[in-house]
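## Example record

The block below lists the input lines for one assembly entry, exactly as stored, with component labels intact.
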Amino acid sequence: MDDLHRLAQGGDRRALARMLSAIESGDVDVHPLLSTPAASNAWKVMAITGAPGVGKSVLVDAIVQRWARAGHTTALLAVDPSSPRTGGALLGDRVRMTTVDDPELSHRVYVRSVATRKAMGSVPMVVEDMAAYLLSCGWDRVLIETVGAGQSELRCAAVADRIVVVEGPARGDGIQAEKAGLLELADLVLVNKCDIEGAERHAAELSESFALGDEAPDVMLVSGLKSIGVDEAATTMLNLAPSNRSLKAKMRERLHALLERRLTGHPDYNRTLDDLSGGTIDIHEAMVHLLSERHESPGRDDQPR
Amino acid sequence: MDQLLRIVVAKPGLDGHDRGAKVVARALRDAGHEVIYTGLRRTSQQIVDTVRDEDARFLGLSSLSGAHAHLFPQVCQKLIEAGLEDVVVFGGGIIPEDDRPALHEAGVRAIFGPGTPTAEILEFMATASSMNDVGVGQPSDWYWTSNA
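Predicted structure tokens for the full assembly:
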């Protein structure tokens, strides 16, 4: 493993991929491997989130391509859901990634598909460790493309420095924009598919809604597919400042995520679920047991490969 | 669930038919594996890069265009050149019986034609993952004999 780590640090992508697998399955504790990052105000980890089908993957591809052309390196962790029934997953985000296939740019882009496995929500917490490792291997920035997420899915806030929410045209009336949730945490909102009717109106409604609060995030109209507004969005995202109004919510998500990780990372987690469903213990006993001893696991106990 | 495997399912070359690849991807998913689907019309190099970056243990190649005799060995060769000799390669599609020995020779460990029950593919995967020397560039001359 030491050899693999050294090779990965030296830029060997096969070694990097294998290290990420080991981190993902909890075989390796990433923290001793990380170098202290140089202090910087620039963001390192950005989450791209939004409802299924709004065009996250196509947009991410277009943005990453602009950054790669400008000489920046980007690692993309593309998250797709695991089946809660079988644990399997079909990871299809690569289908829309063309930048990684461009021989001129491919050395500046790393794409890794990540299944949610046992984790709740749109981003498994182990992604935080994978992102940290990628940064320590010299990648400039990490983008996390979340599972298609609904209104109340805020978990990405726990792992990212910046949050970009992708919206689409005709996503409901003005009241939808007023609802609380994910949009409150956005550092930037991209209304994608701007060539389709309803996009401009939706963007205007979002802007109006934000204007009622303090520290409104920018709302930009883009089309990933038609390359409209993508250059501007790529530049804005690169230099995106954090909105402070989201800080408390981010901390809350971090706390909840840590709790979840302690529960699911406990060696007795699966057995406790069996006991619970078998009726031999009740839910409070289960909770007390899983939180009783101090237990730190770097990840989950699935064993791929 | 036995062992969670990461598997790339790829469509090399100019071939627009992906029903078979999707059926296989779905069956592997339902068996509890993580399947990375590349989408249509990938070059050999793109497929090898994907296998490398995704750290896949298995690669399934699907071709219905007749170009398998050229494309499958090319992918195998590039995997070996990239140091991925331990990746297990299997193929599917319209592959005439006469073409199969050359593909096995190149390192393809199983070939599944139309009508293969997905259970057989899972059986192959379980068998191959229990063996340590059936990667594309490893010396074993073992290959799966399909019943279909």
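DSSP finds eleven helices and eight strands in chain A. Strands of chain A lie at 45-50, 74-80, 89-91, 109-115, 141-145, 162-167, 188-191, 218-221.
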